[in-house]
Amino acid sequence: MPDPIHPRTTLLEPHDPLLIRDGRAFGPGDSARSLPFVPPTTLIGLIRTLHGSRNGSFDPRSIPELMTLTLQGPLLTELGDDDGVPRLYAPAPRDAVLLGDRSSSRLHRLKPAAPEPGVLLDNDAEDLLPLVLSGEPKGKPGVLPQFWPWPAFEAWLLERKEVRLGDGVRLDQDERTHVSLDPATGTASEGLLFGTSGLEFTGRAGQRFGLSFRTNAELPTGAVPFGGERRLSVLRPGQGPTWPACPDGVLDAVARTGRARVLLLTPAAFRDGWKPARPVHDQDFTLLHDPVVQPVLRAAAVGRPLTLSGWDLKERAPKPTRRLAPEGSVYHLSLGGTPEERRAWVQRTWWSAVSDNEQDRLDGLGLAVVGAWGDE
């Protein structure tokens, strides 16, 4: 797997609600709706624009160099007080299910299991195991927090029974109504109303949130325009929370069992849609290509696809619309090799991008971590 150098962690704090359009048609009377979170493709566009600009002017000749810049993230971060340490959050894993009511809800885990005799599945051609809830859980599915604090997320990676989600958060949407102004009169144009919906980075309990990411780009400190309507955010290179190393419990479990869960922290681009592709050539990098441990996909928990487009600065044209595997998706893999080789594979995969295409990996798509897949 690639091992890019990411020398600096950077914080980006939105000053206003961020408008990251979801690509729906937009015109008079419509609303421009934001995606549920900032995708890496939007952030890497800002990074490359800032890195390639000098004295307020962008040099198109720098584009080939800019395309080699790397990104890890973004991850939601609670900024805290001036003297507080920023806290890292992770997207909710797709193999987690909350059952029960408000008074007694409990977190359950989806796990691969052999299908019962006589049960027909629609994935026979994929030769994948279904994901089921163990035991006989009761209750209606509840709504999980959109983002989990890192200690709770790490407990989920380690398959601990107690996972506390009390500090989990969901970003609200800020709804605004606007009018189009007549430049000749300076008054509102009749009938030309439109709305916007932006991501709020303030919590209901008064928390302040931002984005944490790592990049090898040289970025300025201070206010920058970001997202739709060029709303202001503040960049702080060299600041941010510590990105944790892989827990020893995960390393030990994967080395011992030869089974692992790969969890996406950012959306991933795969040639086969929702799943990693098998290599076409021996030189290809994919999550399923490692000549030492030879990963095999056994099961997957994947949410609805995230549809992305954008503007291609190099080609000066719209990018093709793509459907990506969303953040929080979980892939269960079985591994070969020795325990030492599996341990090395986990360390290579931790904080690596696992998209099939090299440019997508440089752009931050498919940032992944690894969790245990127990003996049950």
Structural notes for this entry:
The strands form seven sheets. This protein has a seven-stranded antiparallel β-sheet. The protein is globular, with a radius of gyration of 22 Å. The two termini are 30 Å apart. The mean pLDDT is 84. The protein has two domains: 151 residues; 125 residues, Immunoglobulin-like (Sandwich), CATH 2.60.40. The chain contains six helices and 24 strands. With 376 residues, it is of the alpha+beta class. A hairpin with a 4-residue loop joins β19 and β20. It comes from Deinococcus aquiradiocola. This is CRISPR-associated protein Cmr3. Pfam families: Cas_Cmr3 (PF09700).
**Sheet of most strands:** 7 strands, antiparallel
DSSP strand content:
25-35%
The quaternary state of the protein chains shown equals: single chain
Query: What Rg do the Cα atoms give?
Result: 22 Å
User: Could you estimate the helical fraction of the residues in percent?
Assistant: 10-25%
Distance between the termini: 30 Å
Q: What does the average pLDDT come to?
A: 84
User: How many structural units, i.e. domains?
Assistant: 2
**Count of alpha and pi helical runs:** 6
Structural class by secondary-structure content: alpha+beta
The arrangement of helices and strands along the chain is: EEHEEHEEEEEEHEEEEEHEEEEEEEHEHE
Strand order across the largest sheet: 10-6-5-13-1-15-14
